[in-house]
Write a structure and sequence with these properties.
alpha/beta; Rossmann fold; 2 domains; eight-stranded mixed sheet; binds S-adenosylmethionine
């Protein structure tokens, strides 16, 4: 048994106090943070970077220093999906026991992540007697009850080539969630880097702005019901936004003027309708970048010659590592399997740490990492 109940609750409460808006969440009661003298007093430098630890991740995580890695990204064994040998995760008799075991590991993961870090957990669902159990969501809800992290996004993986398991009375299951949790509000988030290739390769080419840009708006302002003062402000802001287009800062813009253009529906204070009511106009800037949505499409992958049965797509991990870390960051996967997280981290010039209970998988993972060592230039896109 690690840590007394009092210690556990205190440690967790310390962390959860950082979240004022998590106050209404149920406080944790039973999770096993090690007591202070049991937490290894090690520096990050004592962690073996760019290597895979062999063994049970719960026990190994307990020996890792607190606040030491930037990102934990992982896909634990799914509930009653397959036998991975010793370790037990996924082979529990009930969903409740499975989630309890996962939460013990998750709690250690939260301790190990830096305050600026984040955690990504990918889980699969399961039908029992024709009933979909919603396991990923049960897990996420239990995590929220801990009150030690915030759920930042649920990113849906849309499988382009799902397993065609036919059932006359069910549609083919073709999505899985990736839950993104953060330990504080200061989490690293490089939004423009997520699916960045879309803007780079398929984005609209910025056209040279026409000489007449905005001319029609000057005329409309002049002939509008706006007061003289409002007209001057509208002309000033119009000139500014035209200059932003000319210098390439934004792609384009639209202007809405009182009693000339249709009013936007609804709107809160500070919204477009309020701007029109208060100053007689509003300007909508168009940045020309694609919207960063919480959906990612990718094929289900297998690696030739690799024994591992449940590899997650390099492409998704690549996009999430770019979104959530900077170069040289430390990325940990406590269920590293065939080494996907390490291959991607290495390619993106991040450090990795893996944990895997199955030594046979570790050998293959190390081979795969070595083979991909010099692939720095290869960035995948779908
Ligand atoms: C779903 S697979 C992860 C696959 C990985 N994402 C990839 O792309 O190859 C889960 C892995 O966790 C390992 N595992 C199961 N229980 C474990 C435990 N208690 N500690 C460490 N690894 C464990 C399994 O052997 C399996 O390789």
């Amino acid at each position: 048994m690690v840590g007394s109940k009092t210690n556990t609750a205190e440690t967790l409460l310390e962390i959860s106090n950082e979240y004022s808006d998590c106050e209404n969440l149920q406080k944790p009661i039973f999770y096993n943070f090690p007591s202070n003298n049991e937490i290894a007093q090690k520096n990050v430098s004592n962690l073996d970077l760019n290597d895979i630890y062999v063994g049970d991740c719960l026990e190994i995580l307990k020996s890792f220093p607190t606040d030491s890695v930037d990102l934990i990204i992982t896909s634990p064994p799914y509930f009653q999906q397959r036998e991975y040998g010793s370790g037990g995760i996924g082979n529990e008799k009930t969903v409740e026991d499975y989630i309890k075991n996962l939460l013990d590991i998750f709690t250690q993961c939260v301790r190990v992540v830096k305050k600026t870090g984040s955690l990504v957990f990918n889980l699969g669902d399961k039908y029992v007697n024709g009933n979909l159990l919603l396991i990923p969501y049960r897990f996420a809800i239990e995590v929220q009850k801990l009150g030690i992290v915030k759920l930042i996004n649920e990113i849906t993986w849309v499988k382009v080539n799902p397993t065609p398991k036919q059932d006359v009375k069910k549609l083919i299951s073709s999505t899985e969630p990736f839950f993104v949790f953060a330990k504080s509000n200061d989490y690293c988030f490089n939004k423009d880097d997520f699916l960045e290739y879309r803007d780079k390769y398929f984005g609209k080419q910025t056209k040279k702005a026409s000489k007449n840009i905005g001319k029609k708006y000057y005329e409309l302002i002049e002939n509008s019901v706006l007061s003289q003062e409002q007209k001057k402000q509208a002309q000033r802001e119009l000139a500014e936004v035209i200059s932003e287009v000319n210098t390439g800062k934004i792609e384009s813009f639209r202007m809405k003027i009182k009693d000339i253009h249709a009013l936007p529906y609804g709107g809160n204070a500070g919204g477009r309708l309020t701007q029109i009511n208060n100053k007689g106009f509003t300007i909508i800037k168009i940045y020309g970048k694609s919207l960063r949505r919480d959906v990612i499409e990718s094929t289900v992958e297998t690696i030739e010659g690799n024994k591992h049965p449940a590899v997650y797509p390099e492409f998704i991990i690549q996009e999430l590592v770019k979104l959530l870390t900077k170069e040289n960051a430390v990325v940990l996967d406590p269920f590293i399997g065939s080494g996907t997280t390490a291959v991607v981290a290495q390619r993106l010039k991040r450090n990795y740490i893996g944990i895997e209970i199955h030594s046979e998988y570790v050998e293959d993972a190390k081979k795969r990492i070595e083979e991909n060592k010099n692939n720095y230039s290869l960035e995948l896109f779908v």
